[in-house]
Amino acid sequence: MTTETHDRTAETVGDHVVIAPSILYFGTPVALLTTENDDATVNLSPMSSAWALGQVVVLGLMKSGQTAHNLTARPDVVINLPAPHQWQAVERLARLTGRNPVPIEKQELYRYESAKFEAAGLRPEPSDLVRPPRVAGCPLQLEARAERVRPDATDRFLIVETRVLRVHAAPSIVVPGTDHVDPAAWSPLIFNFRHYHGLGPELGHSFRSETARRRVSG
């Protein structure tokens, strides 16, 4: 028995096993970000590291990517949230980069593409308050502006704090007569350890929910 095998066996005692996954995408919504390039054209990029607090959405981006470059220079961005059935359009963007020349660390797996909307089979539509367009067909579109951009602890990524200025929602996912997204009607596209998923049936709701449905017994 080698030391490595012995160590691994010791780590499996108990209710858990110690692992060292290469990624920690444990399940976050996919977003399509539109930003403005130096020449006023549009970059469209998929990402899956975002979280919201109030009207602020925090984005985690590869430091060498075109989106990071754009947001460092120009703060406008649209955070478009696709539905599960749009996963193939997202995946068509996965190997593309708007950075030219392609960064060294991306050259093995990625290629440069300037016409990303066309490559993905998506189309733009005008925004109201920011320069980059929205992605037509995405049920939620958040017009936002980056207010703080800084490197992360590893200096490989950028942490971008964006303030949402306007929310566009498909009528089918809004509780009629309110400003609330209906969680029973809206299912984000989830990127779970590099696999695409939608949501399953509702299990329950928080005591703070403003859209709770009365359960019918029997």
Feature tags:
218 residues; alpha+beta; three-stranded antiparallel beta sheet; 4 helices; disordered N terminus
Question: What's the SSE blueprint?
Answer:
Elements: H1 3-11, E1 26-29, E2 31-36, E3 42-47, E4 50-53, E5 56-62, H2 66-73, E6 76-81, H3 87-93, E7 96-97, E8 111-112, H4 116-120, E9 124-125, E10 134-135, E11 140-151, E12 157-169, E13 190-192, E14 195-197
Parallel strand pairs: 7-8
Antiparallel strand pairs: 1-13, 2-3, 2-6, 4-5, 5-12, 6-11, 9-10, 11-12, 13-14
Total strands: 14
Cα end-to-end separation:
58 Å
Q: What proportion of the residues is helical, as a percent range?
A: 10-25%
How many DSSP helices? 4
Using the alpha-carbon principal axes, give the shape. Answer: globular
Listing every helix as H and every strand as E from the N terminus to the C terminus, the arrangement reads: HEEEEEHEHEEHEEEEEE
Low-confidence stretches: 1-10
Write down the Rg: 20 Å
**Secondary structural class:** alpha+beta
Spatially, the strands of the biggest sheet line up as 3-2-6-11-12-5-4
Give the overall pLDDT as a whole number. 89
Which range does the strand content fall in? Answer: 25-35%
**Sheet bearing the most strands, described?**
7 strands, antiparallel
Describe this structure in words.
By secondary structure, the chain is of the alpha+beta class. Helix content is 13%, strand content 33%. The strands form 4 sheets. The protein has a 7-stranded antiparallel sheet with strand order 3-2-6-11-12-5-4. Strands 1-13-14 form a 3-stranded antiparallel sheet, with no helix packed on it.
